[in-house]
Amino acid sequence: MYYYRYDSTEVSCCYKYLMFSYNIIFWLAGVAFIAVGFWAWSEKGVLLDLTQVTRLHGFDPVWLVLVVGGVTFILGFAGCVGALRENICLLKFFSGVIGFIFVLELTAAVLAVVFQSQVREWINDFFLASVKGYRDDIDLQNLIDSLQRMNHCCGAQEPNDWDLNVYFSCNGTHLRREKCGVPFSCCITDPAVSVRLTDHIYTKGCIAALEDWLPGNLYTVAIVFIVISLLQMVGIYLARTLISDIEKVNFSY
What we know:
Blueprint: H1 13-44, H2 61-84, H3 88-114, H4 116-132, H5 138-151, H6 206-216, H7 218-252
Helix pairs in contact: 1-2, 1-7, 2-3, 3-7
Membrane topology: Multi-pass membrane protein
Organism: Cyclopterus lumpus
Subcellular location: Membrane
């Protein structure tokens, strides 16, 4: 009886340590994201009172940071340990999850192009919900302010969208300075002058500003997507190559 033996019975050190180096960056990035997320929550006192998480009316950006950090941390850990210990299960888990994320990204991109009107409506509803919770979360407030300031916009469709927020609404009985106004990030001139005059605030909605920004930056968006996709493909290639080497070594014995 004859047995076929491969020429090489050792796992390639090159692929092994390339895989480890590739994933140590993932792991460190995951640790950094998680640390930033918990630091942000500690600054808001959420860690001392976890019930605050359920009382938020808008989107808390910290959740996104923690989810991205958690997924990145797990993938980096699986890739690092899988490479060093030559563990096929961990390497298959890593390549499978990366492949799944890539398919999700591709599917989301296609659906966004095919269902543009529905996506636009969803973004509009999301922005309006965030407007309502503007004062409830400092991170959400900073995110909206940065978006409005960078894109020279105000509200989802128009500045009047801020009437949905109880602090800026004209319908309330409160006597706050913000009443019938808009956040300072909507202001063109010094906010100390006025926040009520349309001559001093951006009148374009942020949805329209995003639609204007996208065509002029389509190549940038495409390049970013391609770079992310290539990095994911490199990770899958390294993992599958390492799995193949490990299987060859195990079979040869």
